[in-house]
Structure formats: structure tokens, C-alpha cells
Amino acid sequence: MIYIDRTCKETLYMQIYHQIKTDILQGSLKEGDLLQGSRGLANTLHVSRNTVDAAYGQLYAEGYIFPKKGIGYVVASLPKLTLSTSLETIENVKATHNNLLPPKQELPILYDLTNGSHSNDLFPKTLWKKATIECIEKLDSEQKLAKIIDKQGELYLRHTLLSYLKRIRGIHCTEDQIIITCGIQQSLEYICKLLANDKSYVFMEEPGYHKATAVFLNNNLKIQTVPVDEHGLMVSRLPANKEHCILYTTPSHQFPTGVTMPIHRRLELLSWAKENHSYILEDDFDSELRYYAKPIPSLQSIDMNDRVIYLGTFSKALSPTIRMGYMILPHKLLSRYNQIFQDYNATVPILNQYVVSHLIETGEYDRHVRRMNHVFRQRLECFEREFKNISSNLKLSSNGSGQYFLLEFSTSVSQDILIKKAAEQGVKVYSTMQFWQEKTDCPPNTLFLGFSKIDIKNIEDCVSRLKKAWSEWL
Amino acid sequence: MIYIDRTCKETLYMQIYHQIKTDILQGSLKEGDLLQGSRGLANTLHVSRNTVDAAYGQLYAEGYIFPKKGIGYVVASLPKLTLSTSLETIENVKATHNNLLPPKQELPILYDLTNGSHSNDLFPKTLWKKATIECIEKLDSEQKLAKIIDKQGELYLRHTLLSYLKRIRGIHCTEDQIIITCGIQQSLEYICKLLANDKSYVFMEEPGYHKATAVFLNNNLKIQTVPVDEHGLMVSRLPANKEHCILYTTPSHQFPTGVTMPIHRRLELLSWAKENHSYILEDDFDSELRYYAKPIPSLQSIDMNDRVIYLGTFSKALSPTIRMGYMILPHKLLSRYNQIFQDYNATVPILNQYVVSHLIETGEYDRHVRRMNHVFRQRLECFEREFKNISSNLKLSSNGSGQYFLLEFSTSVSQDILIKKAAEQGVKVYSTMQFWQEKTDCPPNTLFLGFSKIDIKNIEDCVSRLKKAWSEWL
User: Fold this and answer.
1) What is the pLDDT of residue B242?
2) From start to end of A235-349, where are the E strands?
3) Which residues have C-beta within 8 Å of that of residue A281, sequence separation ≥ 6?
4) Residues of B in contact with A266 (CB under 8 A)
5) Chain B: residue nearest A297 by CA?
6) Which residues of B touch A81 (CB under 8 A)?
């Protein structure tokens, strides 16, 4: 018996459809049962015949019923199935999952000295809006609003990016070597597929960038760590007889120690890569943000042997929310790239690619980077001033660039306690433990503090809270 | 000898920096050589002392020189290195690469019956602009313009998407099961990392979606094909004793045959997955585009055993240029997802996520989908009409949905010849060969024709050109 509810929001034909479907699934309508003719049912229900036809059409499209010539619609044969839910199981899993979530933050955090996020006002909102409108029109006139896009990224962006990188980072390459990705991790995913096999391993700086490590591990690469000194990755500790390896490094601003690899070490590293037929992944993540000297030319710019894969991102100078980065492949990897990714789609929306290209082309990007440098330099100097006055037991390490610094206590104290005490005063600071593969090698009394999210007017208060929190060890 | 050119665009300090650096790299300044004092050099060059200090500071930052107490700057020790270029090699590789590029298109293509791209006018340009402006303001007020974003995608989008999918596709899940990705391929990359190990293999429909195959192969999965009949993937051909497998399927609109899997087959498939502890990847890529019946409820909506991973995309209903899709994980995979991707970043820009969410929330997305359905239905019907009149030797297969159809010749002729002849008349049609793992099983006389990019007013001319091209076989 079908019941029609005219006050219900559901259309009449869907009501009929649902009730017949339920009858079939619950077994009250069985295989071979004949449905009432559509004219008859329409009369019974006081609906139009089209309504019943639509319901029957849908049931037929889904395979619940089929038309029998000269008779009408008949219920199809369905396999006997326990569709009995395992709902309790689902609930159990849900409960377990909820237990895995971090406990609720009990104390209000006033200042989060995190890494990566910026204060909201640093996003070039007006520029972005204006560029978006212009680029939608440009894409429209080029008939590109709905066309499958180049897997490597749009030539317009690769072209302006190339001239920018030549100028700023000394990059030498052609547009066909540039691949636009949705960030460093996506670039690393591609590289793992390009270079790695089951037996591959990768050399990582210790300490190093944990988000790169995550990608390598998820691609079944073995990680071998290389220590870092005041000149960055210690090339002398690399084995000489390991061929066809991958080495990941942050030479211009080692993450997280902040040191810069000087030219002699860079040349040694390139020499090692050449002799060992290995590739260097140069992550140049924040090279535009240097406050006292110009950015140091990239490894890629002095590599003459096609051994460097250059990785960049717009997350630091623009915003982490735009999810855009790039990699530059050596020429000799291009044919392999084109072969193994031939059926792949691009990962970055065309409009966003055009907006960034437009900002670079018009010089707005340069102006924005200068503004960011000004803001970040002021924040860093403010932190340096404030911490200087506190105690000689505290050492702030920064190389005058980027968006973070390390804070080292000469007194004996553990990170956990320092973090907890700071949180009690409303300041969130971070452990350096996550950057170490060998956790026991991590200095227990060094913290990671980012200054990209805190407003300069709050730094004084923030540091005085930290002073209060840590008075015991100062 | 340093030479200053005041007419040159380069700043004075960069001129000094570059000349000293070149001297060091070329060996005319050697290890231990003392640089002239900055005051003296400034006097010699008639520049300010700050200018020389800036140049020396940069050279120091890069490790070319270092300060010796009481003496001044001294040239650092650099390893002897042949930086001799292998430029010829690079040129050779370049030449080889260029040879790999497809030959230039000799004939002008008037109508490209491709898959995936839409005609430019189908992009909701005005809506997108308006929504972008509104969403930038919304993000600004929520202080989210420059903050690291949720790796799963923004809750705002997951929330509106969830209610949309419940309504349209019968999806049952919670927001925490939804992961926003930059497309189906990105979803599959995640799934490979979630489910696969070295011994894993994946069941694929034959013929099937080649872009999914590409991802599985790049993740070292073994492909085992399963034939497709008029009800889609033939569940009876699946082995019963294979545990913990992955099965990829397009049940609502099999790619490329176009058939729909009816309910009895769906239930069989779910039963197989349950018994074999295997996962079904349900690619529901164009389920919104159905022209005669409502979309068929998804497999996910009738799965009660947490065996279906649902995959969707905005490429078909909105545009392939926005690079946005999603997957819905079963509850029991969530803790593993959170564990192995805990250090991963999101892949889709926050602004684009907000724009799509805004379109769904305001009902604009529904209205847009209806417009797309209207346009595509008209195009499909126009093709059907035009081809019907041509010859009984041609069979057009479509299930009244999507953006493509297959064209089968009952006469004996090869795809290559048909494609070549069509191109000579300015129409690009496609082979079905790429969808087959076992190329010899591909019917030689079936072509793939997409109607998402051609304007309806051109279809008559397009078909009359094809008639001319293929007259021999009609």
C-alpha cells in the first residue's frame, strides 16, 4: 500500500519510488511480482500518470524492476543479502577514534608561536581580489575557464616564475623544467615516483624538516640521517660509495637550526652528488625572507652537472592557504617525468596560477615580499631585544631570515616543562623533538618559536609572560 | 681591480659583490688573500663605506670571505672543483627531449570531441567572481587568510558537501570522514598509501579509467582486470579467496562503456567485499549528470559494512580547472588516515574550498548543475538525432548521462583509420584503446566521442563532416 503525503517536501514520484523500493528490499515485494499498471496506480493515488511513470523509470534505471513485454513492470531477482548493519561496530570505531583526538585545550592561548601560519593582515587581500577579477577575464578571453589544464602548470606562470627565479635565485633552466605543484610535499611525492625504487634511501639532515620525512616514509624510502653543524649538512659524513641516492637539504636556511650553508660546503656537496650519481633536493622554502643580506644564490644556480632538483613554495612569502609551490627538474629527468606522469592531471587551479603569475608580472609580488621582509625583520628584532634583557642563560639563534628562531637554555631543563609552563601563561611554544629522527639526540633544552603569526605590538607582553613562566631557569 | 658603472641598473654594492665573487671563483683572489679595508675601497671607488660593507656582508653570508680579527676580511678556503659545465650534454638531452614531443598538428581541428574539457561558456564566471569576493571577506573576518589549513579540507566545505551528498547521492557519513583533495587521482594516491603494501593488487574494470590505472601503477600495485558486461563490472569473475584487495569501479556510469550497475549487481559486489575483507573504491565521477532519471543512489549509500570508499569530483559539474574532488573514508580507516598523514598539508586552496561551499550553501550549485544537465542533454540528443539519420551501421551507446558516448561500427574498420579520416575533415575523435589493459581485447571499430566541449550549434556540421570522412564504412 502506497501512501502519498502532500504536505511532505519530497516530490510525489520520489515518495512512490521510495515506498516500492523499501517493499522490495524488505521482501514484501518479491522476485517476479507484478507492479500495478501505471494508469491504475495513478488513479488509485490521485496523481498524474507521468508521476508514476517517473517513479517506475527510476526503479528500472536502478535495476529493482524490469519491464515484461505485454505485462508491465516485474520485480527483479535480487541476491539474498544480509544488509544487517554493523552499526555497533561503527559506533565503537567512532568512540575509539574520538579517544585519539588531542585533549581539549584547557588554558586560553593568547599567543601561538607556531610555524607556517601568518597573521591574517599579511595576506594581500585587495591585490588578490583585483587580480582574481582580472585573471577570470583573461582566462575567459583565452577560452581556458573550463579546459583541461597542463599537468605541469600553465605556461603563463612558468614563464613569469622563471624570470623571477633567474633574477632572485640565479636559477638557470627553461620553462619545460618547471612543474607547478600544490606544495613542497606534492613535489616530493612526484620525486619519489621519479627517482625511487624499493631499495632507495634518502639522506636527511638531522635535525630536519619532519614534513619531508613524512612523505619519504610514506613512499617506503629508508631514511639515513646526516648531522648538521654551523655550516649546515655535514658533507664529510656522507658515504662516498653510495650511488644513485637522494639527498634532501635546506642549504639557504637549514630547518630548523637556521644556519646557512656557505659556498665551500655547497661546492663539496655538488661534488659529492656528481661523483655518486645522486640527486640533491634543494628545499629553498623561505629564501626570499632575508633581513640583512640578499638571498644567497641557490645550489641549483651553481650546479653544472644536472644533479639538483630545486623546490620552492609560495607559502612563506604569500600564504600557506594558497597551496602552491613548484619544482625544477634537471633536463635529463624530463623525458622520464613526461613518461610516468603522462596520464596525470594538474594539481593547482588555473585561476590561482594566473593570479600568482599576474602578481609577479606586475611587480606586485616583489613589493609584497619587501613588505613581508620589513614586517618579519621588525618582529625578529623585537624578540631579540626583549630576550636580550631577560637573562644570559638564554640564547636566541637566528640567521636574520625566515619566520622562526630557536631558544636554547644553558640551564638544565626539559622541553616539556618549558612548554607546559609557557602554556600556563597563555603562550604556545614548540618542541624541537619532532625534527629529530633519533629523539635521544635532540637537545632537551631547546625550543622552537615562530614569529609569523604574532603581531609586533604583542611581543613585549608575550616575552614578559615567558619570563614569568620560566623564571626558575633564567 | 673593481670597476663601478654608474649607468648600470645593478646597485653599486651588487657590482662590488659580483666582481669580488668572480675573482674568487676564477682564482685571481686566493685562499687567505686579504681584501682591502672597506674604508679604503670606498675611497678608491668613490662610494660610501656602507656600500662596501654591504658587499662584504653578502660575501661573508655566502661563505666566500670571513673576518679575521684585527686584520679585515680574508678569502675563505674553497674546495678545488671543476665547475666545468656539461653544457653539451644538457643540449643533447634537450634535443632528445624535443624529439619526443608529438609532431605538429598539420590539419586545423575545428571540433575536438575530447573528454573532460567543457566549452568555455559553461564556467559560471559571474557566480565565481561574486563568490570569491564574498569568501575573501568571510575568510578575513574568520582570520583564516594566512593560517595553515586543515589537511582534510575546511569544515565549512565538508559540512555543506555532506548535506548535499546525503540529499543527492544518499551518502551516509560524518564530516570527519570527508577528505577534500585536488581530484580523483590525489584521492587515489592517498588510498594507495592507506591500504596498499608491496603485495597488494587492485581489481580494475576492463575497459576502465586509464587515469586511475596510472596512479595504481605508479604506486607499484599489480593490476588485475575484471570484464564488464551490460550491468557493469562482472562480480562473478572476481576470485572468492582473495583477501584484503582493492577494487576500483565506476558503478553509476561505467567508464568508458557508459553502462549502469543495477541494484542486484551492487548487492553482489558489496557482499563480495564483505566476505573478502576488501575495499571498493567507488568512483562516482559524473553521477550528477543524468538526463532522464535521477542519479542512482551510490554504492556507499547501501553499504552497511564499511567497505566502500566513495570518490567524487567537481570537475564534471563545475570545471576541470578548479582541481577539486573529495573522498569519503569508512570510519574504521580514520585513525590510520590521521596517523600516516598527520604531518601532511592540505592540497586545495582555502579560498577555492570556500567558494564551492558558498555555491552549494546558497543553492547556486544545484541551479548550475541543472543548467549543465540541460545543456548536455540537448547536445547528446542532437548527436543521437544526427547519427540516427546516417546509417544503420553505426551504433551510439550512452545511458543518457555524462559527457561522452561510444560509437560502434558494425563494418570492419580500424580505429586508427577512422580517427585519421575524421581529422582530415577537421574533427578529432578518440580511440578506446587507452582504456584497455589488454590492448588486443579492445574492439577495433569503437570510438570515444565527448560532447562537453562542442557547442550545440556546431553538432550538425560536425556530424556531416564525420559522415563525409567515414562514407566508405557507412
Assistant:
1) 80
2) 246-249, 279-283, 308-313, 325-328
3) A188, A191, A246, A247, A248, A249, A309, A311
4) 63
5) B62
6) 267, 270-271
Give B230-256 pLDDT, tens digit per residue.
999 999 999 887 888 899 999 999 999
- Residue range B265-318, pLDDT digits in tens: 999 999 999 999 999 999 999 988 988 877 678 999 999 999 999 999 999 999
3-state secondary structure A173-198: CCHHHEEEECCHHHHHHHHHHHHCCC
Contacts of A126 (CB under 8 A, 6+ apart): none
Q: Which of residues 146-165 of B touch A (CB under 8 A)?
A: 146-149
A182 and B182 within 8 Å at the Cβ level: the answer is yes
Residues 6+ apart with CB under 8 A from A16: A2, A4, A41, A45, A47, A51, A52, A55
Of A115, A124, A121, which is closest to residue A369 (Cα–Cα)? A124
Same domain, A419 and A290: no
Contacts of A331 in chain B (CB under 8 A): 90, 93-94, 97
Are B294 and B406 members of one domain? no
Nearest to B270 by CA among B241, B309, B231, B214: B309
User: What is the model's pTM?
Assistant: 0.84
> What per-residue confidence (pLDDT) applies to A93?
39
pLDDT attached to residue A198? 60
Residues in chain B closer than 8 A to A143 (CB atoms): 120
Residue B87 pLDDT class (50, 70, 90 cuts)? very low
Instruction: Quote the longest CA-to-CA distance of chain B.
Output: 97
Report the candidate in B468, B464, B466 with the shortest Cα–Cα distance to residue B447: B466
Inside any domain, residue A307: yes
Say yes or no: B87 contacts chain A, CB-CB below 8 A.
Answer: yes
Q: Tell me how far apart the terminal alpha carbons of chain B are, to the nearest angstrom.
A: 82
Q: Using an 8 Å Cβ cutoff, are A412 and A445 in contact?
A: yes
CB contact residues (below 8 A), chain B span 23-52, against chain A: none
Compute the distance between CA of residue B202 and CA of residue B248 in angstroms, rounded to an integer. Answer: 7
Residues 166-195 of B with CB under 8 A from A: 174, 176, 182-183, 185-186, 189, 193
What whole-number percentage of chain B has pLDDT above 90? Answer: 69
- On whether residue A284 sits in a domain, the answer given is yes
At A338, the amino acid letter reads: N
> Which residue of A lies nearest to B294 if distances are taken between CA atoms?
A58
Give the count of domains, chain A.
3
Q: Does residue A241 share a domain with residue A130?
A: yes
Let me know whether B68 and B197 are in one domain: no
Q: Which structural domain range is residue A20 located in? A: 12-75
Q: How many CB atoms are closer than 10 A to CB A213? A: 21
**SS3 of residue A122 by DSSP:** helix
Give the whole-angstrom CA distance, residue A161 versus residue B191. 33
Opening angle at CA B419, ends B418 and B420, nearest 5: 90
Rounded CA-CA distance A38/A387 in Å is 83
Domain CATH number, residue B58: 1.10.10.10
Cα A148 to Cα B322: distance, rounded to the nearest angstrom:
10
B145 and B117, same structural domain? Answer: no
The answer to whether B235 faces chain A, any CB pair under 8 Å, is no
- pLDDT confidence of residue A107: 67
Does residue A92 belong to any structural domain of this protein? no
**3-state SS class at A406:** strand
Q: Beta strand A201-206 with A222-229: parallel, antiparallel or unpaired?
A: parallel
Quick one: how far is CA A330 from the chain centroid?
Answer: 24
- Whether residue B218 is contained in a domain is answered as yes
Assess whether B355 and B424 both reside in one domain.
no
* Pairwise CA distance, residues A42 & A37, whole Å: 9
Instruction: Determine what percent of chain A falls in helix, strand and coil, rounding each to the nearest 5.
Output: 45, 15, 40
Which secondary structure element, helix H or strand E, spans residue A205, and what is its range? strand A201-206
- A116 and A137, same structural domain? no
